[in-house]
Amino acid sequence: MQTVGDQPKFVWGVATASHQVEGAWRADGKGLSIWDGFACIPGKILNGDTGERACDQYHRFEEDVRLMQELGVGAYRFSIAWPRIVPDGKGAVNPEGIAYYNRLIDCLQAHGIEPWVTLYHWDLPLALQLEDDGWLSRRTATAFARYAQVCFDAFGDRVTHWMTFNEPWCTAVLGHGSGCFAPGRVSSDEPYQVGHHQLLAHGLAVQAFRAGGYDGAIGIANNCDWREPLTDTPDARQAAQTSLEFFFGWFTDPVVFGDYPTIMRDRLGARLPRFSPAERDLLKGSVDFLGLNHYTTQYVSAEPPPANAVDQMTGNGGLTQDVGGYLSSDPAWETTSMGWFVVPWGLRKMLGWIQRRYPGLPLYVTENGCAVHEPDAATAASDTLRCRYLEHYTQAMRQAIQEDGTDVRGYFCWTLMDNFEWARGFSQRFGLVRCDFDTLERTPKQSFFHYRDIIHAHPVIVPPPE
Ligand code: PNW
Fold first, then answer.
1. What is the DSSP string of 415-441?
2. Which letter does DSSP use for residue 55 in this model?
């Protein structure tokens, strides 16, 4: 841990994911992932975009690391592509895949940037989907633990922080509920099975990590929007609490307490798989820290809100009926080009909720950022909405630390540069750096310099005195 005086340095970083930035989809022995396959189905990805080339970070990482150094971040959160390391998911290890991440990690270290590694950011080896039904099968959890072990052995001497899963909620709900993400399945029951197997996979990987005595810390990056009660009534407060337990609690209660939230068990009955006593022991306490990926906020009410306040029911994916409650927004809220609402105080409340429910665990904001409509280089060069978003969300986070005493130790902006935004293809730009997807030229936006100033202004963020 780096310090300033006797205070621990706050970890400022940027985040990306392998499939969104690397490209090189079949280079050097890489196997295909479910996203490579999904992109071949007409209509699944906007404009027929694919991750085949993306930002080509695979061949351009040195330039990208130099950009990060100029930005002044102390950490880079990236993910490892499982099909680069184990092309068919469970067979032979691909030495060229290992060599790539060695080059990247060494380059980061040479520039004074800590590598923070996500093991699974959605690019499941396609062979595991075809042969084993992917996350619908418990066998995938075993294959994941073996892949994780390969990564710990190869990179564990340099990686300071590991995250097993990125947003297992998305894989469950968007991948197997609404079907808008790979593997594109539509079901009301499969999300819970898929969630269960991801959680078991997490537990097995952490068990291997801890048995191996590696130096770093290990956790998980779960996503959650804040849910604010629309009215100050017991019904609305309960609806908001239920919504948060179905969203964040689904994937956090098991890794902290060893089982699902009671409300999920009550509502779902036999649709929610059960952990055996040994599995509960495996999962309980299986994180050294919690990561939060947070983008937006909505109101919740137990009764349908006034007509003019209703706008979308999308935030709960395909599981709205299980969660219950009605979502709404304030017409005064600014929206990003994803249609997500800009509500900085939601992050402060979200962090407080997490700290109260899971006391004693350090928190990191492992993703936060916004998409802006930037049709050309000139609009990108003055991305004032993103500057405001980052200013106000990091300010809300500082208030959570300095005024509420929440133990937040780092913040990762999503994302370093415009990249392959999943089902939205290249149409949504989240980057601090513009990427021209024809020439692959990288150009820092105004927000790059604004974030750099935020980082410089806040090397340490101190909690209030006891
Ligand atoms: C996250 N939702 O995805 C991912 O971790 C990133 O890979 C992604 O680029 C980023 O956020 C921006 O989208 C999400 O519908 C995708 O609630 C969808 C949702 C949440 C997060």
1. -SB----GGGGGG-B--SEEE-TTT--
2. T
CATH superfamily of 11-457: Glycosidases (3.20.20.80)
Q: Does residue 421's CB lie within 6 angstroms of at least one atom of ligand 1?
A: yes
Residue type (1 letter), 89: G
Q: Give the residue, out of 120, 247, 367, with the most ligand 1 atoms within 8 A of its beta carbon, to mutate for a pocket test.
A: 367
- DSSP secondary structure, 337-350, as one string: TTS-B--HHHHHHH
Closest among 57, 133, 17 to 422, alpha carbons compared:
17
Amino acid letter for position 323: V
Residue that wins the pLDDT comparison between 321 and 249: 249
Res 307: pLDDT: 61
Residue recorded with tokens 């295909």: 32
Task: Based on the residue annotation, tell me whether 466 is a catalytic residue of this protein.
Answer: no
HSE-up (13 A, CA, CB side) for residue 340: 23
Q: Which of 167, 245, 279, 374 is an active site residue?
A: 167
Ligand 1 atom index nearest CA of 422: 9
Q: Residue 17: CB within 6 Å of ligand 1? A: yes
Q: How far, in Å, from the CA of 74 to the mean position of ligand 1? A: 23
Q: Determine which residue's CA is closest to atom 15 belonging to ligand 1.
A: 315
Ligand 1 geometric centre to CA of 330 (Å):
22
Catalytic choice (22, 279, 367, 421):
367
| Alpha-carbon gap, residue 204 to 187, rounded angstroms | 26
Q: Does the annotation mark 367 as catalytic?
A: yes
> Where exactly are the structural domains of the chain?
11-457
Strands annotated E in 342-393? 363-368
- Tokens standing for 46? 């906007």
- What is the C-alpha to C-alpha distance for residues 30 and 178, in angstroms, rounded to an integer? 29
As a whole number, mean pLDDT of residues 107-123 equals 98
Residue 122's pLDDT is what? 98
Q: Name the band, by pLDDT with cuts 50, 70 and 90, for residue 4.
A: confident
Whole-structure pTM value: 0.97
Q: Is 54 in the pocket of ligand 1 (CB under 6 A)?
A: no
Q: Which amino acid is at 433?
A: V
Measured between its terminal Cα atoms, the distance across the chain in Å is 23
